[in-house]
Amino acid sequence: MARKIAERSDIVPVLGEIFRERGFAGASLSEITQRTGLGKGSLYHFFPDGKEEMAKVVLDDVADWFETNVFVPLGTAEDPEVGIDHMFKATVSFFHSGRRVCLVGTFALDDTRDRFAEVIHAYFAAWTKALASALRRRGFGIKAARATAEDVVAGIQGALVLARSQDDPGVFTRAIKRLQARTKTAPAA
Amino acid sequence: MARKIAERSDIVPVLGEIFRERGFAGASLSEITQRTGLGKGSLYHFFPDGKEEMAKVVLDDVADWFETNVFVPLGTAEDPEVGIDHMFKATVSFFHSGRRVCLVGTFALDDTRDRFAEVIHAYFAAWTKALASALRRRGFGIKAARATAEDVVAGIQGALVLARSQDDPGVFTRAIKRLQARTKTAPAA
DNA sequence: GTCTATAAAGCGATAGAC
DNA sequence: GTCTATCGCTTTATAGAC
Question: Which residue of B has its CA nearest to A159?
Fold first, then answer.
C-alpha cells in the first residue's frame, strides 16, 4: 500500500495543522516544505496557485468532513437527540478535547477572513442551520432552536479560545457539557 | 493642545487596530509606519525591541483598560447586578457591537499565544474570576458562579468569531442578550 | 525625536533539469 | 512528480545624519 508518489490528499492534513498553528500569514513555505517533506516544485505541482490554494483546499476539506460527519447526521438521525449527541462527540474528537483550534475560526478573526469569506460564512451557517433543524425536531420552537444553535456553535468557538488561553483542555470539555445540557430542554420563553 | 512630538501613548491605539486586523504575523512594519505616520526610526525609538514590544504594549494597554473599566467595577459595585450589567455594556461598546475582534482572543488562537502566554492567560483568568465573584454576590453557588462565568466569557469570544464569520454584528448583540439573561438566575443544579 | 539609506534574511513564486 | 537554483520582492532591524 506504500506509495512513493505523493497525492495531494496525503499532505492536506499536514497543511491543516500548519495553518492551525501559524495562521495563514504565519504559515511559511519553508515550514511547509519541511513538514510535508516535499520540495517547492512538488508543492506548486499540486497547488499551482501556491499558499492561497493550499489554504483553500484545507478549508474545503474541513468543510467536507463536517458536512459528512456532523451536519448530515444532525439532519438525518431518526432520533434528533442521537444526532445532537453525536455532534458533540465528533466535535470533542475533532478538536482533540480543546487542544486543537478551529481552522475556520482562526481564519475568521483576522483579515484572512476576506480571502475566504464564502467558505467561512458557509461553514458556520451550515453548522448553525443543521443544529437548529435538529433542535426543532426535538421540540424546540423556531426562535428557541435558532437561538440555542447560535449559542452552542459560538460557545464551542469561544471555549476553544478560552481553553487555549488557559492552556487547559478542561475548559473546553466543561463547556461542551454545559452546551450539551442546553440542547436537552428549550430555554424559558 | 496639539503636540508635534509624538508620545508612545498616541500610537498605541493605532497599533492595536493593526494587530486586530492583521494578527501578529500579518502586521507589517511598512503598514505600521504608514498608519501611524511615523518612520521606522521613530518607531524603534519608542519600541527598541520592535514588533514584539509593540504587541506587548498593546496587550498591556488592553488588559489595563479591562482591569479599570470592567474587572474593578465587577468587584466593587455595591449592587453586583449593576456591575455585571455594566460589564456587558462596556463589552458591547469596546468590541463595537461585534465589528471589532478581541486582540487577546486573536493572539490566543495561533502560535502568537506562546510569545505572550502570560498576559493572555492572565487576561481571561482575571475576567472569569471577577465575573464569578460578582455572580457569587448575586447569590450563585460557587460552582454555578464559576461555570456561568466561564460560559459568559467563552460565549463572548465565540460570538465575536461567529459574528465576523457571518459579517453580521447582530449575531454578537443577540449573543450578549442571551448571556446577560443567564447572569440573572443561577442555572438549575 | 525624526528621517533616509541600507543591510541581511526570509518570503512566495518560477524555471528548468531530471 | 520531484528536485535545486534562482528571481524579485518584502520583511525586520540598524546606522547615522539632522
Answer: B154
Torsion A53-B165-B167-B52 (CA) sign: negative
Q: Which amino acid is at B166?
A: Q
| CA–CA separation, B112 and B54 (whole Å) | 13
What mean pLDDT do residues B72-85 have? 97
A35 touches strand C (CB under 7 A): no
For residue A105, being part of any structural domain is answered with yes
**pLDDT the model gives residue B5:** 73
| pLDDT at residue number B1 | 47
Give the chain B residue whose CA is nearest to the CA of A126.
B166
Q: What's the pTM value of the predicted model, to 2 decimals? A: 0.97
Burial level of A93, CB count in 10 A (0-12/13-18/19+)? exposed
* Gyration radius from chain B CA atoms: 18
Residues in chain B: 189
Q: What is the predicted pLDDT for the residue at B79?
A: 98
Tens of pLDDT along A52-92?
A: 999 999 999 999 999 999 999 999 999 999 999 999 999 99
Domain containing residue A90 = 59-182
Mutate to test the interface with B, among A161, A167, A176, A178 (most CBs of B within 10 A): A161
Q: Is residue B73 part of a domain?
A: yes
Q: What is the pLDDT of residue B144?
A: 98
A26: nearest CB among B104, B110, B166: B110
Query: Residue A89 sits in a domain of what CATH number?
Result: 1.10.357.10
Q: Which has the closest alpha carbon to A54: A65, A69, A38, A66? A: A38
Please report whether residue A131 resides in a domain: yes
Residue B104, in any domain of the structure: yes
Number of domains into which chain B is organized: 1
